[in-house]
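Appendix B.2, paired examples.
Example (i):
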Amino acid sequence: MSDETNPPIEPTPQPIPTEGTPTDSSTPDSDIQLLKSQLDQMTETCKRTLADFSNYKRFVEDQRKQAAWFGVSGIMGEILPIVDNFERAMAHMADLDAVHKEGIDAIYRQLAGLLEKHNVKKIETIGKPFNPLFHEVLSQGPGPLDTIVEEFEKGYMIGEQVLKPAKVIVGNGTTPEVAPQNT
């Protein structure tokens, strides 16, 4: 058998009729209306898909930021006690010579730079109103009611999130007693 006697038969592609598609018995106006309706449906579907994708991108970005924050906050949370102890040690450096003081100051500047780089800031305390979101009360003492009169341990924030609340003493609304002077 040769190919010339039996040429291959190729099927002619036919559109697959679906519900609501134009048929041979429809009028041109109804076909146009049907196509406009389908176009409107597809346009609406595309808009919804774009909105869903935009929301998904926003969600993924929020998750990424949150994961990064947890990573940084975990490490910073471990560094903060070292910073606090370093500051306590610096308060007692009077006996050191100038060379050692300069070395310790340089190390402290590096630590402070690291905190600043990651947007870690100290929580203000003395003279500020007590806020349970930022402060942990250790006790009360003489001073203006619910105003912080002393700080035991610094508190820190990263951005708008508290890493470590400040440990403070708040005023109880009484005035401090003045010790009598011997004359």
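Example (ii):
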Amino acid sequence: MRKTLPLILVFLMMGGVGFFAQVRGQEVQKTEQQETVISPQQALSTLPPRASYDPGGRRDPFKDLIGGGRVSGKASTTEGQLTIDNATLVGIVKTPKGFVAIVSGPQQFPYFLKIGDKLADGYVFSINDSQVIFRKTHERGFPLIRPRNVVKEINPEER
């Protein structure tokens, strides 16, 4: 018993020294954490660069296949969805500011066109009560040397 008591005391002292060393180490870490203040600019500069994609002539896999891209408020569409050839004249409405043509596209979406609105291969040249005149400036993506006028009329029965 006499031999075990000093042995137990030695173990307790060693454990106590280890415990106090651990507490002291935590205090040092807390003071180090308080001293390192990072500004927002420094935090942003440590982030990795944003990812970018270069299609290199291939189809962009991130582009919406059904919608085909962004559609602006006007009838101008991206990537040639609405062309003069595939536009079907549905009707013409008279407004206080002039005439507005209602055109149906290849996916049967209605477009409301005014004079000057752009399509994939041209623009609306003029609108009157029975017909719409388009000015075709491109053919299959290439500009035409001399633009052509394309006239689309409403059937007399539908007037």
